[in-house]
Amino acid sequence: MISPTEIDPIIQGLIHDIKEKQSEDGAFRYCFESGPMTDANMIIILRVLDYNDEDLIKKLVHRLLSTQQSNGAWKLYDDTTGHLSATVEAYTALLFSGYANRSDGNMKKAESFILDHGGLKNTHVSTKFMLALNGLYPWPNIFPFPLFIIHSPSIFPFSFYKFSTYVRAHFAPVLILGHKRFITKNRWTPDLSHLLPRKRKNVKKWRKLLSTLFSKKFFAKSACRKAESQMLKGVGDDGILFTQTSHLNKLVYP
Predict the structure, then answer these.
(1) Final residue before a domain boundary, out of 94, 122, 150
(2) Which residues, other chains included, contact 123 with Cβ-Cβ below 8 Å and sequence gap of 6+?
(3) Range of the domain at 218
(4) Do residue 100 and residue 64 come from a single domain?
(5) In a domain, 26, yes or no
(6) Cα 154 to the chain's mean position, in Å?
(7) What letter does residue 116 receive in the DSSP assignment?
(8) By CB neighbour count within 10 A (0-12 exposed, 13-18 middle, 19+ buried), where does 152 fall?
(9) Is 117 a member of any domain?
(10) Could you tell me the end-to-end alpha-carbon distance of the chain, in angstroms, rounded to an integer?
(11) Which tens digit of pLDDT belongs to each residue from 127-169?
(12) Residues of the chain with pLDDT > 70: what percent?
């Protein structure tokens, strides 16, 4: 058992380290990280925008590769063997970067892990959304969050304005992009068809009817303008939406 006399120097050392990292204005600034998502999405955005910063992309690729597990997966803090969505995002980003190939040994391991856990269809909805934006996963026949929700009055039990500012900032671009079934591709976009489920056939007529209804122009134009207004209100001087990296990932697409 550690005695108090042994613990105190450790505590004092940690306090010293924290004080050393404090900025002159009193703030503490640290790099934002959320598993491999931050680096992966940054690589994808840079390639989607065709932004030429190879030094940064190489560094991000190196960081992603350094966190890959021996079984080919990427982990979040609470995982044991690996996290499917995190692995798919990292795998996709590496292929986007152009500095990794599907035939590489580590990429084959990642592919096996993804397929063993059900492929792209078993990923989190936010991962599917990112993939759909880049033409790597099919948009659903009926988007689960119809655009007209932006018009719902606050008295409704399921109103856009009952969500927190954080959720609304994420939701506004999602509503626009999902409604438009937006897709962008360029020379960097990889092929993930080997991870896709079989295409569904014989889509029911009622789905097509609902999709047509929700896409009516008189609903769409005003709803899009309202969603865009929500997004623009939260953009700071640095161009980031509500200071959140995850918001920026969606803001660049609409």
Answers:
(1) 122
(2) 84, 85, 88, 131
(3) 124-196+204-254
(4) yes
(5) no
(6) 28
(7) H
(8) middle
(9) yes
(10) 57
(11) 999 999 999 999 987 776 777 777 777 777 777 777 777 777 7
(12) 75
Contact between 86 and 59 under an 8 Å Cβ cutoff? The reply is no
111 and 138: one domain? Answer: no
> Closest Cα partner for 94 from 138, 133, 41?
41
Residues in the chain: 254
Asked if 131 and 93 count as a contact pair (C-beta separation under 8 A), the reply is no
Tracing tokens 């996709």 back to the chain, one arrives at 92
pTM of the model: 0.72
Local structure of 252: helix, strand or coil: coil
Q: Which two tokens stand for residue 87?
A: 């692995």
Q: Average of pLDDT values for 28-41?
A: 83
Q: What total number of domains does the chain contain?
A: 2
Write the pLDDT tens digit of every residue in 4-18.
788 999 999 999 999
The amino acid at 12 = Q
Q: Are 120 and 131 in contact (CB under 8 A)?
A: yes
Among 76, 88, 139, residue whose Cα is nearest residue 117: 88
Concatenate the DSSP letters of all residues of 23-54 into one string: -TTS-B-----BTBHHHHHHHHHHHHTT---H
Q: SS3 letters for 163-226?
A: CCHHHHHHHHHHHHHHHHCCCCCCCCCCCCHHHCCCCCCCCCHHHHHHHHHHCCHHHHHHHHHH
3-state SS class at 99:
coil
Q: Are residues 117 and 62 in the same domain?
A: yes
Q: What is the pLDDT of residue 203?
A: 44
Q: Which residues pair with 241 in a beta bridge?
A: 235
Q: Please list the helix, strand and coil fractions of the chain in percent, rounded to the nearest 5, in that order.
A: 55, 0, 40
In a domain, 28, yes or no: no
